[in-house]
Amino acid sequence: MRVLFAFENPLPNAEADAEVFATTAKYLAPHTDGAWLHAPVAETSTPEAVSQMTGIPLVRAWAPLTPAALRHFCCGITIPLRKAFRRADFIYTRNLWVSWVSILCGQRVVFDHYRPWPDQIPPLQYWLYKLFTHERFIGSICHSEYTRQKYIELGVPASKLRCVHNGFEPSRFAAAIPLDEAKRQIGVPPEAKTVVYTGRINHKKGLDLVLDAARQLPELTFILVGSYGEGPIERMAATLPNVRIVPWQTEDTLGRYIFAADVLLIPPSLQPLAKFGSTVLPLKLFFYLGSGRPILAGDTPDVAEVLRNDETALLVPPDSLPALVEGLKRLTSDEALAERLSNGAREHSRNYTWAARAKKIADIITHWRQSPPHGPGHWGKAQTRNWLAQSRRWFVHFVRTRSFILPPGNTSSS
User: Fold this and answer.
1) CATH for 2-168+358-401?
2) Which residues form the Glycosyl transferase family domain (predicted)?
3) CATH match of 174-351 with 3.10.105.10
4) How far is CA 330 from the centre of its chain?
5) Which of 162, 325, 334, 386 falls between 20 and 30 A from 228, CA-CA?
């Protein structure tokens, strides 16, 4: 199979979507008979550097870098003009616009994304249904079972939808740093008990709950890594002597903070999933697994797909301050528990490398291409009622907030 990987944002960049797509393409390309990458190039880079990073020949997108909406539009409208578009057996993309244009121009498409778009932008539901059930839409790789179910509810044949979780790069942990040494490297006393969070620091990540826990646990040192400047979380943390805010780190320096953690924390909150709709199965989860450090997270529908309570992590009820406080106390005082969870996480992580993800996707695509056509989708009265009801809620939400994304918590059917 010959594949044109199509990405709509400049490469390289440090955002999670770029890491997921570029790394998946890098590991999936060896399973093909030929591959190309269609993407814009960041101002600070060159086409040669992007090709070297991914190991795939670059077809530079004919698109301006800004504004983003125009960039996305141009990436889609110009991709059919490229020779690689015509040579490929299908387009592999995470962009709905690119998918639609490619199908209109006679190409086949494999889609790969984490967002449950039917819930988040309900007015698109019928169009999404028509796109995903088109005969040239080969199938969709969903990053979670949570998202996959949303498309099944839309009426898309389940056989066209496969859940393949994200992964991590094992080489990033090849040179593990002992806990005490890692603490020294980041300026923390070896005897301090550390709770480390990595990722974007903002109000959408459930970090207000973490700061509340820090107030009740002055004996613990909370290290929040991923600040882009002064925001509400940074201002709240400034009053807490046991909370340390650290700027966004590069791949080369982030490992020191991971290895310095007595506990790696995924804020146990439903807010990122159900209130803001911004995160489904955070990418850091797989990175945490690979580190072999103890993990504490919330028992939320997406996280529970990968982590197992008392086996690979300590999962606590979401949005419960007492449960979070008690869980942190347990994990920082019970060395046997911490070691058992660390070992469980390290063993479980073998299923979630980028190489393993690419192999699963390659096998799925081969199966899709060799199988008879998928059965028809189903759009009936229930889907129509849901479409209209959720679209009304979306419109009210948009008028109030000017946000195009309707959080899942606001999308219950009527």
Assistant:
1) 3.40.50.2000
2) 181-347
3) no
4) 29
5) 325
Phi/psi for 248 (5° steps) reads: -55, 135
Per-residue pLDDT tens listing for the chain (414 residues): 999 999 999 999 988 899 999 999 999 999 999 999 999 999 999 999 999 999 999 999 999 999 999 999 999 999 999 999 999 999 999 999 999 999 999 999 999 999 999 999 999 999 999 999 999 999 999 999 999 999 999 999 999 999 999 999 998 887 889 999 999 999 999 999 999 999 889 877 889 999 999 999 999 999 999 998 888 999 999 999 999 999 999 888 899 999 999 999 999 988 766 555 556 778 889 999 999 899 999 998 889 999 999 999 999 999 999 999 999 999 999 999 999 999 999 999 998 999 999 999 999 999 999 998 888 899 999 999 999 999 999 999 999 988 888 876 544 433
Kindly report the pTM of this predicted structure.
0.89
Dig out the tokens for 187 from the structure.
Answer: 């300026």
CA distance 92 to 12: 18
